[in-house]
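The authors assume throughout that readers already know how a fold can be written as discrete tokens. The format is easy to grasp once an entry is in front of the reader. For illustration, here is how one protein appears when written out as sequence plus structure tokens:
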Amino acid sequence: MGPRTVVADVADELARRVATGEYLPGDLMPSVRQVAEEFGMNRATAQLTLGRLESYGFVEARRGKGFTIRDVRQDGGMDVYRHLFRFSVAAPELAAEMFADIVDVERGIVLEALLGYTAAEKVLDPAGLAAAVDELEVLARREDPDRIAILAAEVSLVRTLLGVLGMSMQRAVLNSIADMVVEVPEAVTAYFAVAPDLHVLVWRALLAVWDTGSGPTEAQLALFEDLFALYHEKVLARFGELVGVLPQPAERAATA
């Protein structure tokens, strides 16, 4: 095992301890000597390991003191949150809480894009959109669907709509969310709590609405939003199952 692998593995273990609260904000990280002794590495490699943890945004170097643990939940940006979510899977309750936040933000952005484009003057080539949905269907109907490829195709579609609507900030956040999800296998699986075909059906329905040139009724919009919310509830429940969050007593009674 080369030094790069050792550095990555040990940095990930230390990051997990920060993410799960084993190491608390404001505390000093173990010193270079302590890291070297615990993980059986030389001090130069231990220094590189702590440097990688700093690159994650989890610690900051203090001259003469070593590395201090940052309050990553309060002070971290999207990239730090991405690392935090990846390492939080070892703490199921925390991971489920973070995933719920991710899904909530993602749902808001996607709904804003879909409903915004529905209400806007259509400028995208309908044939191009249909071809993109056809490609999505090909991916979804494979015997062993590549979930990451399907997610990438859907994100690309939404990103196109956001671009037309001039929502550059939402597009940047959506890109970051996509990066967060694909790094956590349980999150990818959870997004397909319902069969991949459903993803295609939603896009087909939207294309049909856009082709008519007349917007959906208020009742149809309300139904769409309700179905979207229900889908994401299933996604959250599936993620909880995958990471090992036990259902609450009321939930267990309802499913008994």
Observations:
- Confidence is low (pLDDT under 50) at residues 252-256.
- The first strand starts at residue 59 and ends at 62.
- The chain has 13 helices and two strands.
- The beta strands are 59-62, 66-69.
